User: What shape does this take?
Amino acid sequence: MSTPFEQPHERSSLWLIGAGGFGREVAAWANRCSRVGSSRVAFVDDNESVVNSGRHRLPIDGTVADLATAAGGSFAITIGTSETRRKIESRLDGANVNPVRLLHPKVAIHESVEVGPGSILCQGVTATVDIRVGCHTIVNLNVTIGHDVVLSDFVTVHPGVHLSGSAVVEAGSEIGTGAVLLPGVVIGAGAKVGAGAVVTEDVPPGVTVVGVPARRISS
Assistant: This one.
């Protein structure tokens, strides 16, 4: 008997990797994305407890290892942890599936904005002009992104964040819910900005900052 990864149907498949809370949120609107079209949408997940939870409206076809054997199709990693997304992407290197951009139909985005493969922009995101979003980056609900902002690969931006013009968020960094980045600040690779923090100056790589104004608490 053929499996979903052998593409037995005329329609291609979009696999959402991660059937947890964020995955279910994305699944609620993924089939309305222009890049998805008529694709069949399903989950992939390595967590047996999630697979058997019965909380999903979409099928869970198998594991990441199964997906690596697929004959075609596309995927997006719907997991909020940057390092986990990076590891999963590396496991699919060389596989015959391609990362796809997912932009919610109610994203307000200018034509000058570049969004890399595998990135997800959720409902209410506003991106103005000349912005670059890397690969496998998540921009969650109601985030505003000012002119000339750069979000590198595997960045996680939680809901309600405000990124002022020319801010730079380097690879693998995480910006907590409701945080504000002032114009031109640079968040170093792998750094974390706490929820509600106001970042007024550059944050070194790997450092965690919290508070108003944001102050360093760890590295």
Observations:
- The chain has two domains: 4-99, 102-209.
- Residues 24 and 57 are 8 Å apart (CA to CA).
